[in-house]
Inverse folding.
């Protein structure tokens, strides 16, 4: 029963990792851009929420009414004003520019907020739990996060397969230059993709910041978790990313059950083992 | 006023100059062929007109307006559509989605999904299949249909016959007549000289990035074309 | 009729090589005319230059954009501390072993991370470095989370007096920098170097011409790891204390190094030297501004990447056609009148 508990807790944790991964997965899937600053953008969103919470007295979840549109616009501008210019000219420009952005965000946050840890307070829901048969207690909040992850991915699937803009995203992902010849404004479309990615990034950030302490240096770890979920799941598969997140979460939960200090390392080791056995992840795209 | 006119159109790939001062005109409603050997600059010329290469504004004039500086998606909006060489369908989209994508710019006009299906009935039967599942000829029809969906005034066709069986090529060129009968202006790039000349009323023969010969196709001595084609 | 000559050296390189030797000689005599502060600064410049040249070889020439080279700085340092402290080995053989140990560990790592392409390779190397850091913080024999220190007894093996020690360690820094330079330069002028350039330009084309892409990349990765491990052992011999955070710090051993190479000019021999100088100057000028200076560094790197991807050296060499350390061969067309 104890191991079943570990399995459930780990899977639920995976929901959060999948949420971290959505933004990374979108920007790679559509623009072929691996955003090294993704983790720092998550942390930046958490700070934006912190400002809104402190400034308006809203609770963290309600602050999303302001945070989401703000980050949507910020994402659009980031892509249109900066990242679009890195996409022609090989591997190094996007990598190093987002790396530079990562350094800038971390140090700007350090300058503005200091190195202290912060946390958003949502109230009673954080500690409520459900008791399942077999005396397994699961937190209500992790279940909510997991549900948000599932709904987010389902929503994105709908966007991709049922809307005009989703069709354009898929076409641009296949062949951006031909999409441009067919009347799609690549620069605008990419900026829109980053804006949507930032919506999910902000969502993940607020849910994460209610659960865990964060500080200006928390970004890289989030990036690595998101990255591991994407690679385990297989590039280009959103549901695969959720499974990848769950595997990562389970590996961490198992590690933590053995010894609390092993939690993170167990996740990395699981990732490396899967990478060696299944280099294209669990659900690889048949075509690239 | 010509629908399309290029003025001293030059184009570069990096340091390599592919076009040297091309002057060509296309009147509304006519079908013009561009022929020439490999590397003569035919595709480059089409790509420049489609906005895929950077050129000076005045080098390309469409409906009397300079458009040489526009981006490809802007060109679609003003009414220039391209059937690219090698078809370039989107592999993760279905046939119908590929067609609908052509309508992304929302240009109004006679072409709708139903009319494209009317022109290429086979596409209607296969509309739910992913594009790579189609045969080469069907893919070419889909690529032509996709371009039509943007309701172009000028349709640029790059190597429609490439890699297709003669009987299929015949089908596609028959459909092209139906398209030109609607009043759509067409510029054809072809390596197959006879095919191109049969379908067009006027031709330009390119050689090493320059126009070597231009004339109406009717009754023109094909030996002279061959001479211009090979630079003899 | 025109004759064609193939030349390696350029006029600039023929002037510059003796100049570089003079500067090196002057630096070598620094202990006799400079203070300990100067020596520390130049030693730091030397080991940063070594790290920058190694990362440049990896990313700029082999196309292996790693952000996890701190793994090998840390591994080299841990190997060195463990061999001297726990095994009781003398400082010099321990140092000589630190590099090969890091190189040995990099082989299985390569087999994992080489499965990732492009950007994903970068983050994969980072995961590996993080795993080593976490691993080190779990192993009691390596001091776990609190790390290890070099005991005075070990340190005295270098030299008994503090000032002598500083002088010896200073020369070691210079020496290792020169060794790394020589290694990088020789690799680039070797068959492997030519293969690297081919791979960087087109992997499919070079592999169809018989270049073994995997083996060439593996060779570069392992050689770089070994040299980085050696530099790591030297850095922490000077710092005397080693912890997982310090040894495997991405900021100290990779971010700063990437900044140097990108600003100086990636994929050139001259770039890391110029980038290192720019970094050190900026840091000395802006040290009082705290994290603001890091923001500025980040902004400079972003700007350079967007506006001048060849870096400062790219701008200079493009403008003046200079090449100080020729690794390629140039064709000289000797046009005689017809």
């Amino acid at each position: 029963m104890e191991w079943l508990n570990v399995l459930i807790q780990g899977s639920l944790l995976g929901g959060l990792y999948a949420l971290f991964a959505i933004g990374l997965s979108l920007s790679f899937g559509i623009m072929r851009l691996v955003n090294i600053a993704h983790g720092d953008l998550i942390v930046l969103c958490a700070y934006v929420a912190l400002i809104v919470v402190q400034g308006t007295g809203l609770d963290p979840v309600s602050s999303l009414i302001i945070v989401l549109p703000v980050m949507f616009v910020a994402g659009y501008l980031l892509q249109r004003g900066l990242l679009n210019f890195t996409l022609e000219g090989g591997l190094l420009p996007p990598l190093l520019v987002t790396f530079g952005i990562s350094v800038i965000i971390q140090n700007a946050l350090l300058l503005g907020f200091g190195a202290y840890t912060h946390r958003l307070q949502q109230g009673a829901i954080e500690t409520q739990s459900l008791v399942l048969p077999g005396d397994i207690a699961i937190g209500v909040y992790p279940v909510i996060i997991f549900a948000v992850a599932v709904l987010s991915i389902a929503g994105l699937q709908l966007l991709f397969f049922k809307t005009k803009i989703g069709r354009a995203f898929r076409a641009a992902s296949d062949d951006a230059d031909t999409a441009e010849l067919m009347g799609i404004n690549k620069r605008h479309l990419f900026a829109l993709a980053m804006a949507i990615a930032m919506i999910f990034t902000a969502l993940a950030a607020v849910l994460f910041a209610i659960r865990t302490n964060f500080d200006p240096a928390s970004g890289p770890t989030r990036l690595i978790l998101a990255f591991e979920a994407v690679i385990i799941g297989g590039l280009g598969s959103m549901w695969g990313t959720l499974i990848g997140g769950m595997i990562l979460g389970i590996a961490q939960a198992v590690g933590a059950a053995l010894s609390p200090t092993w939690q993170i390392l167990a996740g990395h080791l699981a990732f490396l083992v899967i990478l060696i056995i299944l280099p294209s992840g669990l659900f690889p795209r048949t075509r690239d | 006023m010509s629908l399309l006119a290029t003025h001293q159109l030059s184009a570069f790939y990096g340091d390599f100059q592919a076009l040297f001062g091309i002057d060509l005109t296309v009147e509304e409603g006519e079908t013009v062929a561009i022929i020439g050997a490999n590397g003569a600059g035919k595709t480059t010329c089409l790509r420049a007109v489609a906005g895929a290469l950077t050129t000076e504004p005045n080098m390309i004039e469409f409906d009397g307006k300079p458009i040489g500086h526009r981006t490809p998606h802007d060109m679609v909006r003003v009414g220039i559509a391209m059937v690219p060489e090698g078809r370039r369908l989107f592999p993760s989209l279905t046939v119908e989605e590929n067609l609908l994508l052509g309508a992304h710019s929302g240009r109004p006009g006679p072409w709708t999904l139903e009319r494209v299906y009317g022109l290429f009935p086979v596409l209607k039967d296969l509309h739910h299949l992913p594009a790579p599942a189609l045969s080469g000829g069907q893919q070419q029809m889909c690529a032509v249909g996709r371009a039509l969906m943007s309701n172009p005034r000028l349709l640029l066709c790059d190597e429609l016959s490439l890699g297709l069986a003669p009987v299929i090529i015949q089908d596609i060129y028959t459909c092209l007549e139906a398209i030109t009968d609607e009043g759509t202006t067409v510029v054809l790039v072809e390596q197959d000289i006879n095919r191109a000349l049969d379908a067009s009323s006027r031709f330009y023969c390119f050689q090493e990035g320059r126009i070597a010969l231009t004339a109406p196709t009717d009754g023109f001595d094909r030996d002279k074309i061959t001479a211009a084609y090979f630079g003899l | 009729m025109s004759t064609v000559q193939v030349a390696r050296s350029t006029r600039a390189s023929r002037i510059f090589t003796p100049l570089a030797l003079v500067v090196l000689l002057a630096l070598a005599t620094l202990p006799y005319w400079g203070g300990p502060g100067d020596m520390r600064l130049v030693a730091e410049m030397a080991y940063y230059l070594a790290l920058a040249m190694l990362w440049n070889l990896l990313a700029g020439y082999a196309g292996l954009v790693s952000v996890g080279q701190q793994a090998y700085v840390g591994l080299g340092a841990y190997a060195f501390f463990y061999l001297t402290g726990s095994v009781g080995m003398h400082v010099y053989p321990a140092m000589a072993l630190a590099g090969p140990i890091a190189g040995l560990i990099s082989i299985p790592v390569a087999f994992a991370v080489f499965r990732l392409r492009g950007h994903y390779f970068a983050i994969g190397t980072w995961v590996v470095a993080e795993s080593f850091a976490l691993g080190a913080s779990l192993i009691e024999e390596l001091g776990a989370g609190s790390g290890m220190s070099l005991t005075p007894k070990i340190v005295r093996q270098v030299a008994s007096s503090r000032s002598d020690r500083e002088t010896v360690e200073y020369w070691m820094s210079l020496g290792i920098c020169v060794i790394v330079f020589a290694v990088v330069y020789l690799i680039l002028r070797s068959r492997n170097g030519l293969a690297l350039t081919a791979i960087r330009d087109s992997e499919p084309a070079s592999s169809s011409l018989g270049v073994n892409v995997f083996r060439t990349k593996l060779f570069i990765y392992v050689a770089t790891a070994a040299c980085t491990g050696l530099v790591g052992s030297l850095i922490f011999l000077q710092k005397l204390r080693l912890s997982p955070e310090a040894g495997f710090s991405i900021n100290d051993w990779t971010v700063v190094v990437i900044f140097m190479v990108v600003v100086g000019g990636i994929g050139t021999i001259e770039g890391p030297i110029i980038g290192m100088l720019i970094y050190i100057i900026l840091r000395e000028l802006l040290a009082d501004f705290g994290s603001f200076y890091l923001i500025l560094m980040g902004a400079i790197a972003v700007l350079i990447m967007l506006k001048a991807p060849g870096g400062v050296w790219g701008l200079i060499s493009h403008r003046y056609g200079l090449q100080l350390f020729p690794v390629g061969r140039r064709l000289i067309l000797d046009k005689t009148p017809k």
Notes: The two ends of chain B are 34 Å apart (CA to CA).
